[in-house]
Amino acid sequence: MSKLIQTISWLRLLAVVSQQQTPVSAFHVPIQNIACANKVQQCSMTGWGGTSIRCRRKSCLFGIMEEIEGQALTAAETWSVEATAFLEPDVATKVDRLFQDRGDVSAFQVLGGRRIAAASDDISNGEGRRSRFVFMHPDLFLDAATAEAEYCTVILVENVNLKASNSIPNALAGIGVDLDNVGDIVITDDSTVYLVVDPTVAKQVLRLLSKELVGVGISLSVVDPHEFMPDGDIQDMKLSRILERKIDRKKFEKGYVHLN
Q: What's the number of domains the chain is made of?
């Protein structure tokens, strides 16, 4: 009898716990670091027990979209200007749809180098992949060209031996630049690279990136914002597994969601 009473008590407790809902915000990625936004397709966030990878991706993307919506509303309500991290095309497409025909906030999609977002995986001349969104109150009258100039810095790297060097994403991570702050990396030949970065990390890149690369007389310079970026091969934004694990560990220690 005592065992039966104990079993019933446990079942009642389980029923009470199952009715309690965990706030969705507990799983949100902080807006200061939307690393998950650029890993949606291979997102494998822990913390949901046996939840499928597809469900985890959806939860990850839901949190990102909600954070971006909040960021846009903050910009509109405070008459300030806010910019997202650089996003992969699948996420950027969803953000673009979210803010189409909105009267309460203006949103500009910028890529740097006076390019536009590619409409498909086949990138044509004058198009790019990674982009970010700049939000503001509609009455601030900031135009797209100004938004791009203020929130995208194009850096030209010359005389680098790309075949012998570390990959550019690995080199950037090696000097402490988060890839959320990096747009497209365009390789025009074996020794010349254009990369788009957040202006807040431009000085860091100019000062330190050459130390992570191989080449004689490597030079880095800022490209005039009115110039068009040349076409070339866009490098995949992939880190080595060792670097990725180190970065994930640092984010986990700082309280961000842990990504495998």
A: 1
